[in-house]
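ugh ok fine here u go
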Amino acid sequence: MIGRPRRGGRHRDGQPPTTVYRRLWDGPARSEAEMLDRSIPGWSVFYSLSQRRFYAIAAWPTPQPLIISDASAEGLQDQMSQAEAALTWRTLPEQARRHPAPVLRRRITR
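structure:
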């Protein structure tokens, strides 16, 4: 075989070219991550094939990087909303935290 020119795409002389099947790993999970990434502004969402987990990174300025992970897309969404609520609570002025706005209730008359 030394000195013989080889043609591309063949492993052995006389064999037909081989095609390689491209496998899409974790397709449904990756598509869920893409859907979350498009639907929730302020977050960058992706799925890690090696860890088999969903990750979200806050896309707004924070004192430290805010990275959240979960095994399911629903769990990740819950953690993202909790992180947003916690951040909103921390950024409120001190007076608003001590004296929250009163809850106004309407009377239902018949």
